[in-house]
Specification:
The protein has two domains: 321 residues, 3-Layer(aba) Sandwich (Alkaline Phosphatase, subunit A), CATH 3.40.720; 75 residues, 2-Layer Sandwich (Arylsulfatase, C-terminal domain). Helix content is 28%, strand content 17%. The longest helix is centred in the N-terminal third of the chain and has 26 residues. The strands form four sheets. It has a ten-stranded mixed beta sheet with strand order 9-8-7-6-10-1-11-12-2-13, with helices on both faces. A four-stranded antiparallel beta sheet has the order 15-16-17-18, covered by helices on one side. Strands 3-14 form a two-stranded parallel ribbon. It contains ten helices and 18 strands. The radius of gyration is 22 Å and the shape is globular. The protein is of the alpha/beta class. Strand 16 and strand 17 form a beta hairpin.
Length: 444
């Protein structure tokens, strides 16, 4: 063999050996992910979002160490479809959502179809350990429960804390009834145990807390501590428990290699409107008004997501699957079921000053009964049908400029007829695509 070829072959062998030695280290350095979600927490129920009644120092610190998203929308305006959207990156209508939630219009044994590709399955198939602690609410059929949807371990309630009294670990019933006052404590303790005893794989930990969903009942150690009744006690305990989890991240030296995202599943519950707040927005849970599903969202990853950011880019919970997959260098399946509607906003989070355009330009809104009611494009929101709380919506389309009118009180449709036509056409095209590329609701 000529010397030239011997030299090239030796170089290739050396490079291959080097890569083999490096690959395990590269895999080990993939970020961990903790995805936390509150239940029915309003946009301004955190002090870093302007709460007038609540103190949330842990989440305030998290926001100061990362990005506070101010134009973020939950997956839907009620529990079950919001979770469907978060875990699949798809609008709930693509998953056969008929309106309502598990146990209320949706039968208990119906839910997230098993053929749907979930965030947990994406991370598990990429070699991540996957765990869940919290509220599931995606179907009670055994195949639809967390372990059938990609989670290797789970401590959970199957529905909201007003709908069930049973607490499960994997397939084992561990409490009946559970103590509602201590659910946040239990879920946080399980998460901390997972962090302390995990194996060496990178991990995806999903923490959909049941707090502050009604009935809000204060933990004995927090009872009466806030200035906002039991609701405030529950929110401030939630903040403190998240602080305990963050302390374990530092204790186990996982802090700087773990992406932490916090959000709410929808806006305030109507029965809790006396204590919860979505100011300056109007509307509550079930409503497509801004207060129904514009929610707080905080993203933290030291050294990668720049600290002390306030990002006003249009973003939604359906974007978290592609965003976190990109962050962890996980390729998403091209033929995912259902078709994904989410886009990765990782570059927006990590390079806020770069000129690259933000990928999300529009978003559809359904009310809690699965009626398509509105579309947002940039700072404009067009209501397509009559909507509770929007004056004049029965007489024709309502166009809102959210930048100037966050309370959605002034209809400017007559002044922007062409914009109305363009946005209506876009909404019809998107809705037709969803109808043509959807899957049935999961059934036994």
């Amino acid at each position: 063999m000529p010397a030239f070829f011997r030299s090239r072959l030796l170089s290739l062998v050396t490079l291959a050996a080097a890569l083999i030695g490096v690959l395990p280290a590269v895999a080990a350095e993939r970020p961990n992910v903790i995805l936390m979600m509150a239940d029915d927490l309003g946009w301004s129920d955190l002090s870093c979002y302007g709460s007038e009644h609540l103190q949330t120092p842990t989440l305030d610190r998290m926001a100061s160490e990362g990005a506070r998203l101010t134009n973020f929308y939950a997956g839907c305006t009620v529990c079950t479809p919001s979770r469907m959207a978060l875990l699949t990156g798809a609008y709930p209508k693509r998953l056969g959502w008929p309106g309502g939630v598990g146990g209320y219009r949706i039968p208990w044994n119906h839910g997230l179809a098993t053929q749907a590709v979930t965030m947990a399955e994406v991370f598990r198939d990429a070699g991540y350990a996957t765990a869940m602690c919290g509220k599931w609410h995606l179907g009670n059929d055994p195949r639809m429960l967390p372990r059938g949807q990609g989670f290797e371990s789970a401590l959970y309630i199957t529905a909201s804390n007003n709908q069930t009294k049973k607490l499960w670990r994997n397939e084992e019933l561990v409490a009946d009834p559970f103590d509602n006052r201590r659910l946040t404590e239990l879920f946080a303790a399980e998460a901390m145990q997972f962090l302390r005893t995990r194996d060496q794989r990178p991990f995806f930990l999903y923490l959909p807390f049941s707090a502050p969903h009604f009935p809000a009942e204060a933990h004995p150690d927090w009872d009466g501590k806030s200035n906002n009744a039991a609701y405030g006690d529950v929110v401030e305990e939630l903040d403190a428990r998240i602080g305990e989890i963050m302390a374990v991240l530092r204790e186990t030296q996982l802090d700087r290699n773990t992406i932490v995202v916090f959000l709410s599943d929808n806006g305030p519950e109507p029965g809790q409107r006396k204590w919860a707040s979505a100011k300056p927005f109007r509307g509550l849970k079930w409503s497509s008004l801004e207060g129904g599903n514009r929610v707080p969202c905080i993203a933290r990853f030291p050294g990668t997501i720049p600290a002390d950011q306030s990002l006003d880019h249009l973003t939604a919970a359906i974007d978290l699957l592609p965003t976190l997959a990109e962050a962890c260098r996980i390729p998403l399946p091209v033929d995912s079921v259902p078709q994904r509607d989410g886009v990765s906003v990782w570059q927006t989070w990590t390079r806020p000053g770069q000129p690259a355009s933000h990928p999300r330009t529009e978003l559809l809104f359904w009310n809690g009964w699965a009626e398509l009611e509105a579309i947002r494009a940039e700072n404009w929101k067009l209501y397509l049908t009559e909507v509770d709380g929007i004056a004049g919506s029965a007489a024709g389309p309502v166009l809102i400029n959210l930048q100037d009118d966050p309370a959605e009180e002034r209809n400017v449709a007559a002044e922007h007829a062409e914009r109305v036509r363009t946005m209506r056409t876009l909404a019809e095209q998107l809705a037709a695509d969803i109808a043509a590329h959807s899957i049935p609701l999961g059934q036994p």
